UniProtKB/TrEMBL annotation:
It comes from Patella caerulea (Rayed Mediterranean limpet). GO terms for cellular component: mitochondrion. Residues 3-85 form the GST N-terminal domain. Pfam families: GST_C, GST_N_3. This is Glutathione S-transferase. One of its GO terms (molecular function) is maleylacetoacetate isomerase activity. Coiled coil: none annotated. It comes from the Eukaryota. GO terms for biological process: glutathione metabolic process; L-phenylalanine catabolic process. PANTHER family: MALEYLACETOACETATE ISOMERASE. Residues 92-222 form the GST C-terminal domain. InterPro entries: Glutathione-S-Trfase_C-like (IPR010987), Glutathione-S-Trfase_C_sf (IPR036282), Glutathione_S-Trfase (IPR040079), Glutathione_S-Trfase_N (IPR004045), GST_C (IPR004046), Thioredoxin-like_sf (IPR036249).
Amino acid sequence: MASNMYLYWGSGSVACWKAMIALEEKGFGGYPNKLISFSKQEHKAEDVMKLNPRGQVPVFKDGDIVLNDSVAICDYLERRYGNQGTQLIPSDVKELANVLQRMYEVSNVEGNILKELAIYLFYTKKEDQDEALLKEKFEKGRAELQIWEGYMQKMGSGAFIASKSFSMADVYFFPYLAYFVRLGLNLSKYPALSEYYNRIKDRASLKASWPPHWLKEPPKIDSMSQI
């Protein structure tokens, strides 16, 4: 089945990584793919634009089916191939509710840390950064991580972010956590998240899909150490 699939992806993209983890968990390792270069604007190339007029990745094909959004890709894979590989959406009603809650709650991590803080640090020159505003953004980021630290403490050592087993909530959440660690997040401030991160970072699906340039290049900034 994997031979009928194709993925356009970019290294280090959280959205792409989510789709890649889901593919690995469903047992589709080795699927045909193309690593595009953002710096060369390859996500705006003709082959991508034909499939996604927004010129964004991931772009995923399964036969003649095309999906261009990471959430849609993950949802599609679980719905179509639910009996294959890892069951990412649990059957137990209570676990199902918790997994769905955390899946959609991850949007707060993206909003409060990635968009509010990381992008500000990336795209605002240091001399132009407003100290009071930056302090506010760091406080918002810390508050967000403390919420997830509390969730993980409640789940307990050896569990995952939303259930006893690896689920779609982990597919959505872990790439953000790993990205922040790469940017200097000190997980010693968040012991439950630290235990979670260090325990599952070597999971087969994560190792197989780990952004390749992260293995070769050190992070460009460590400003997230203040969070």
